[in-house]
Amino acid sequence: MISLTKDKRMLGYEALAPYPDISCFVTTRHGGCSTGNYASFNCTPYTGDHPDCVRKNQELLCAALPFTPRELVIPFQTHGISSLIIDETYLNATHSERQSMLQGVDALITRTPRCCICISTADCIPILLYDKEHHAIAAVHAGWRGTVRHILAHTLRRMQATCGTEGKDIIACIGPGISFASFEVGDEVHEAFRAEGFPMEQISAWKPETHKYHIDLWKANHLQLSDFGVPSRQIETAGICTYRQHEDFFSARRLGIKSGRILSGIMLNG
Fold first, then answer.
1. Are 142 and 215 in contact (CB under 8 A)?
2. What per-residue confidence (pLDDT) applies to 4?
């Protein structure tokens, strides 16, 4: 990943840097006005932070981007596999209708310029997708519940159905989240991945020192990209563990649910 701002508010992806029609970012904890467990650059409105702080942080975020978005589209995520296409139907809806449309959504897809689609995470895995052939983008929230239910594969198939997306044209960025070394799980989570057909020898291991199974969510999502035909050279993994680097990135396992979130966004500049 590469730094976008001198104040350390955001990072960007090297894989998307060559594409001038794309803006993208991953926020850090630095440079905002929120306090307590939201300190300081929380841009997500759904976790209990003061609305004025969230609004100010979002203004700082938009001002730092090379192109100003018409809107930051941030869904209310529920660890499901539902996706929403941001198109004229959404844009022509009232504010209350938009809020309703964003409920229970864990992936966004759009081909509309200047609509910055975003995903909120704090240990879960954010994934940004760019179809460079059909100029379509997606943002996917892949916690363990979404990953085990193949949310990334579902989103890719919906992009294929609506945009004509093929794996060879996808640039994929797997963002900061909890690492294999830090993600201890119970037997029931390990069994859920096994039951869904994941190659456990590739994504899991028993750690004697923790007496727990560990799951590699980065690898589990990388496999879904590979299964869709995305070349490995077009997949960038940030390699940043939010649990270990909690001073720079929000971690719900460290701070609890009532805390800030990393915001990952992608936009067609138009």
1. no
2. 59
